[in-house]
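User: Watch each token:
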Amino acid sequence: MAGCTATKKNDQQEPIIATIGSQPIYTSEFQYVYEKNNGGNEDAYTRQSVSEYLDLYTRFKLKVMEGESRGLDTTAAFKRELEGYKEQLAQPYLTEKSVTDQLVREAYERLKQEVNASHILLGLPNDPSPQDTLAAYNQAVELRKRLEAGEPFDKLAREFSHDPSAAENGGNLGYFTAMQMVYRFEDAAYKTPVGQISQPVRSRFGYHLIKVHDKRAAQGEIKVAHIMVRATPGMPKADSLAAKQRVDAIYKRVQRNENWDRLAAEFSEDANSAANGGELPWFGTGRMIPSFEEVAFGLKKEGEVAPPVLTPYGWHIIKLLGKQALPSFEDMEQNLRNKIAKDSRSELNKAAFLKRIKSENNFSEDATVKAAALSKATDELLQGKWDFDAADKTLKNTLFTIQGKPYTVTDFYTYVKAEQRPRMAGTPQHHMNSLYDNFVQKSLLTYERANLENKYPDYRMLVREYHDGILLFQLMDEKVWSKAVEDTVGLKAYFDQNRDKYQWKERAHATVISAANAELLAKAQQQLSERRYEVRNGKPADITFETNSATPDQANIARLNELADRLSNNPNLKLEVYGHADSREAAGKRDLSAERAKAIAAYLTAHGVAADQITTKALGKTKQVASDNTETGRRRNRRVSFTLYSPELSVLADNLNAGNPLGVQIAEKRFQKGENKAVDAVQWEKGTYNTELNGRQYLVIVHDVLAPAPKQLSEVRGQVTADYQNHLDEQWVKQLQEKNPVSINQTEVDKIIRK
């Protein structure tokens, strides 16, 4: 009824900026969304800006209305997704802002300092009983007396601390700063003077005694650039070695004072920074991979470069660009807020928030009913088997109310039954009290969350935005995105009707070789025409045989299967199989070397390799030499060996780069103007051209110059699909506008523009 009344009031009083069918769009709704997305723009309130955005907004609302008319917002999947977003959106409203503000400022001030400290931990179980807690506290007090009397801290830490690392480090934690320890520990460490020992400090781990050894100014932030060569854990050994050789070669060029920006642009595999000289944003302690950070902070002078360092992402050559003190509070504030929301200090915020909403929601508790309800705890609660008597007349009694809504003993006992679990320590009374406190907190939070939309207009608008956004995504996927991908007939028809939009400009079909020097360039040019290059990286291992056998050992089958997969997955690869035999094997007409080569070829073709990928050669018998008169030596003669060949230019480049990972780069494709500087620098006529750019030698072979021509659908499918999606969207919107005509109230538009 309240909702209906509010709607009626809006219809009578709220100005309407547009009407879609019979549904109004109120000026306040549009203005809220418009200012949120455009308020900071200089031209935000021009007639063109407001009108264009209103057009976009009405198109958006048309689609949302269509989704609602089809009941898409009533499905279980939709409700589940919206609830997930509401949970996230609610978080800023379920906190105590004033407490958060204090914690953010405190954290920032502490970040200016690093503390070096040791500790002794006296651990406590989860949810300890009062007796356990008191025993740990008393032990902490006694240990502190012994420390104050002069006993060595590290000795007592090794003897009594429950921190496993204490056995090795005597409790020493080294230097740390704010946000790196649980809050109560951090708070005590920062408040304890250097050389002194804190009082016992309670955290979720237990009680701590903290001795502060030193305090120093924080390191601040640094700015570096890097050149990265990818090398990930678990990659093949050959690839890992190649990455190391490559980064070492780059580092040598850095040491020769070659242009850093040019090296980063050409060789760094960090796509986000390579074009910008490898430059990274400012960062402080804890913001980077530790191995990267340690080397970076170790650099002292601007321009200093460290030798390559390995991280989980690969090899990095790091150059120091600058150092600065801790960023301003304004720059760090939001990041600190995000961290505090997940930090243990958020417990302070939660306590203050619960206190406030208790007051705002008129929380009222009946102490007599509470005491009677808690008294029903029995030992079965410790076993996780507690239950209550459904016939108990006190179950209907009200324990507490929230804004007048009663929460009964039944509600509480039902919660206890669901949440109880076996416990090894504590008393039934202690655990029943804990469950009651949790029930009160849960009830308060649930009530507050359920009423956020009534309490906070901003939250209500955000929820509506997400509601509409989920609907829009579902409809756009159905009507536009997936349809454009799946409707191949429609896509082809659209392409045929719009061929003029998809044209190639003049292109040069060319091969481009970039080399570090003229000698390497000449070698590349000499071998280029072969188009049959030996694959040296990952050369297949030999397969051995028993005496007088042409069947490979079972131990080699796995390697043959890997080779078969490699060949079948790359039809361009060609394999030569060489059969070998031992001179001591049975004499006669039987050619075991040929049999072995053919047996391997047959195995590979049976496992998916094309027959034309394999060539076999019989190398005959190998005479046993005196120095190799062993079974191992004879087995090396009873084998097949392999050579892989590929027509791919990348293989030629790899072979030429054996001594210098950066020696040669080769590419062959159809280039448009602006795609390759070397191609742009030569005549666009058939022929071979030499040029020099940025200290490297280039050979450009122009095979053909292609006149402007229409593109094939296969060449521009991605672009055509995107255009077809826009076309489908326009058609759909026209249909929706016919179904629900849009009417604009220009008077209200003019008011926004004047404002």
User: Anything to note?
Assistant: The CA atoms of residues 113 and 218 lie 5 Å apart. The chain has a mean pLDDT of 90. The radius of gyration is 38 Å. DSSP finds 29 helices and 25 strands in the chain.
